[in-house]
Write a structure and sequence with these properties.
With 288 residues, this protein is an alpha/beta fold. The strands form 2 sheets. It has a 7-stranded mixed β-sheet, with helices on both faces. A two-stranded antiparallel sheet has the order 1-8. Helix 3 links the parallel strand 2 and strand 3.
């Protein structure tokens, strides 16, 4: 297996110039050019020689080279057709890498895991495009893809939202959804100068360790998430008003007020004051 050659500015620029590559804003492309950050990601992901790794958005193959050296196999899904010839070049000699030119949101990842890993849990590692971070992460969880952990580079603000608790300004539907499926842990904050081109905002590497079973028991998972979305859609409203005004919630005013009362909460309570366990309890009241 070849040693990684990418990860510093000079080699990245050389590859981009060789292929006259033009960054596509619509794909949110910011390539990592810091080997220390790459090492941190690989360490945090705890990849071993038996692991199958799914990489989303490999770019020119920088992190892919590092992953290939650590894992049994890497499947890299890249949407930009212009990057495919570059990846064929930079990943030449890395026999354990398979590149798929496709939009990851359209790929049947569960089927892929079944074919490539006999359904055993995989590890996901990615420098995610910021504009589709949430759909990608939630898609992996909600589609019940067998996953051990997700270690990803995301916008700092999004990483913060994933790991905070009730009563903070960043707490919301994403915090609750991520914490229902996984244990979030911020590995490192990453400044803009570690990328090419530089993003306008800071980034962070976050690791999401999948729960073996959810931390709360809920009779109707879909209902719980509808309640969560409805309560955060209008943040300044009370929980009762948020639920009453939501087209996703079809309970009467009386049923909503009664369920909130059973929670031991007053009529002025807001959604951002509730824990995941309380949202689960609320959903269970509506199922009675």
């Amino acid at each position: 297996m070849k040693e990684p050659t990418l990860g510093n500015p000079q080699n990245t620029i050389a590859v981009l110039q060789k292929y006259n590559f033009i960054f596509q804003k619509k794909f949110g492309q910011n390539f990592l050019i810091d080997t220390h950050v790459l090492d941190k990601i690989i360490r945090a992901a705890e990849i071993g020689k038996d692991d199958l790794v799914l990489e989303i958005g490999p770019g020119i193959g920088t992190m892919t080279q590092y992953l290939a050296c650590a894992a049994r196999k890497v499947i890299a899904v890249e949407i930009d057709r212009a990057l495919i010839p570059i990846l064929e070049d930079t990943l030449d000699g890395y026999e354990n890498v398979r590149v798929i030119n496709e939009d990851v949101l359209k790929v049947d990842i569960r089927k892929l895991v079944e074919e490539e890993n006999e359904g055993r849990p995989i590890k996901v590692v990615a420098n995610l495009p910021y504009y589709i971070t949430t759909p990608i992460i939630m898609g992996l969880f909600e589609n019940q893809v067998p996953i051990k952990s997700i270690t990803v580079m995301v916008q700092k603000e999004v990483a913060d939202r994933m790991q905070v608790g009730p009563g903070t300004k960043d707490y919301g539907a994403l915090s609750l959804a991520v914490q229902y499926y996984a244990e979030p842990y911020i590995v490192a904050n990453v400044p803009p100068n570690c990328f090419m081109p530089r993003p306008k905002v800071g980034s962070a590497v976050i690791r999401l360790e999948r729960h073996e079973r959810p931390p709360v028991e809920v009779k109707d998972e879909k209902l719980m998430f509808r309640l969560i979305r409805a309560s955060f859609n209008q943040r300044r409203k009370t929980l009762a008003n948020g639920l009453k005004n939501s087209p996703e919630i079809d309970f009467s005013k009386e049923e909503i007020e009664s369920a909130i009362e059973k929670l031991g909460k007053g009529p002025s309570v807001r959604g951002e004051a509730l824990t995941l366990a309380e949202f689960a309890e609320l959903a269970n009241y509506f199922c009675e």
